[in-house]
Amino acid sequence: MCRKAARILSAQVVLKPGSVLGLATGSTPLGVYKWLAEWCAAGDVDFSEAVSINLDEYVGLAPDNPQSYRYYMDDNFFRHVNIKPENTHLPNGLASGKAEECARYDAVIRAHNGIDMQLLGIGHNGHIGFNEPGAVFEMDTHCAPLTESTISANSRFFSDESDVPRFAYTMGIRTIMRARYIVLIVSGAGKAQILKDAFTGPVTPQVPASVLQLHGDVILAGDEEALSLLV
Ligand code: GLP
Prior knowledge:
By secondary structure, the chain is an alpha/beta fold. The protein is 32% helix and 16% strand.
C-alpha cells in the first residue's frame, strides 16, 4: 500500500519537479516516506524543486516538540530527502492569533496555486486532516476542536491522554477538495467499516471522508484488511 502511494507521489514529482504536495501525518504514511527517502537517496526522485504543504498541526505544540507534526515531518521525511526547508509548510502551532494563522496558511496555499497531489489518511471516525464528524464541508483552514475519540486514538503518541492538545489547525474540507488529485491510504481491519461507510454510504458531514465521493480524481490505496468490506 505504501509503496503504491510512494510510486504515485514520486511519479508526480518526476513529471512536475515543482509539484505542490499536500502531505499527511499519522502511522499510515510512515512507509510512504520511507520508500521516498530510499528512492531519493538512490537518485531516482528529486525533491529539490518540490513544495510541501501539510494538512494539519496541533495548537500549542512547538516545532521541536516530538509530538508536533512539524517534528514528525522533519524526522520522518524532510531530513531524509533533498526538499528545501523553506519549501516545507505546516501551520504554526505556536501562532499567537488563530484566525491570522489560518488566513496565513490559506494564503500560502493560494500563493502556490493550490495543491497538485494530496496524500490523506482517515481517522477511525472518518475524519480527514482534523475535520471531525459534523465539520461543515465549506471550510478552508481553521482551528478545530478534537473529538474524544480522536484524542483517545492519538494519545498513543503522548505519555498521557491529558497531554493531547484539544485543538488543531487543519485544512478544511474545501481546501482538501480543491487538490487536483487525492491519494487516500488506509490500513488495518480497524478502518474497514469506516472505509466502507465513506465510499458506499451517504455523503454526509457525519463521515467527513465521504465527501471524497464527490471528487473527480481519488486513488484509494489500502491493504487487504482495510479493503475487506469493500470488495
Ligand atoms: C490523525 C491525523 C490524520 C490522520 C489520522 C489517522 O488524527 N490528523 O491526518 O489521517 O489521524 O492516523 P493513523 O494513520 O495513525 O491511523
